[in-house]
Amino acid sequence: MSEVRLPARERAALLVQLGVSRLLSPVWIPFTGAIMWLGLGWRVAAAERAVARAEYRRLRRESKAPILICANHLTMFDSFVIGWAIGYDRDYLRDFGALPWNTPETVHFASNWWKRVLAYLYKCVPVRRGSDRAEVAKVLAKVRFLLARGQTALVFPEGGRSRTGRIDVSAAAYGVGRIVTALPGCRVLCVYLRGESQKTWSDLPRRGERFHVSVACIEPKSDQRGLRASLDVARQITARLGELEQRHFDGR
Amino acid sequence: MTAKEIQDRVVKILTPYVKDEKALASAGPATNILEDLKVNSARLVDVVLAFEDEFDIEIADEDVDSVNTIGDCVALIEQKV
Questions:
Q1: What is the ipTM of this complex?
Q2: Looking at CA atoms only, how far is residue A224 from chain B in angstroms?
Q3: What value does the CA radius of gyration of chain B take, rounded to a whole number of Å?
Q4: pTM for the full model?
């Protein structure tokens, strides 16, 4: 596939961001965990968290093939909780590439200088959803570049927070498939995360929320070509998330 | 096939996805699909797949990046047919 190559200046900027973020990570990683744990009282079910962390660690160790993390999306802080749920702080400090990059909506996470500073430190590549296609393509190219360098990224295949509170397979954003199809051997770690009191979408999980997490690794492939292949792969990922969701509710 | 014929078929394909029908009535080559017609960006890929079926062409992922206006669609399809 002849995807557009990211310009050298953009690649260099990402590597500088990675370096700065890594340099300051001994401060911000434990600080973020402390805010979630102590400040907000959030907890992740221990047994499920242990399984998720073991699976993610196994994936990182077994191969250097790219890993894209795809998750359901219910709150604006899902990426923080997911990062926390699938890895230990000490793992991230040792293997900084394991801490996923994020593609938050510019309106929410890059609208003023202090949010931009935080987004920079927190390994974010902001995207303006529904913007000019070339701009979106550039963000996808950045994610591909990072994955190809051993970094991981977390994306939400539904494109935004689920308004129904449930996975909508028909809402699969083809850009996710485009990332996967452009990276041979790319593995996808599907992550389903949900707070016990999370009925539908919201900005922030409630204080004291207890989260449940489940994961499944897939290597989606498609016999189709071009756009149809990307869409097919995106739908396979969303369908797997839908299965994890079904299992979540069956088990309650 | 003339550019006008392609444009008419493009507009017909776009119609079910358009939220601003008033803008569609006066649509021309410079009409922006996302901003003027308010087509949901997530549905743009369905529109492009419909172009593939309608004109029996194949459109690559990267080609979608250049699609912003109706004129862009017409130019892209003209290249492929």
A1: 0.81
A2: 11
A3: 11
A4: 0.91
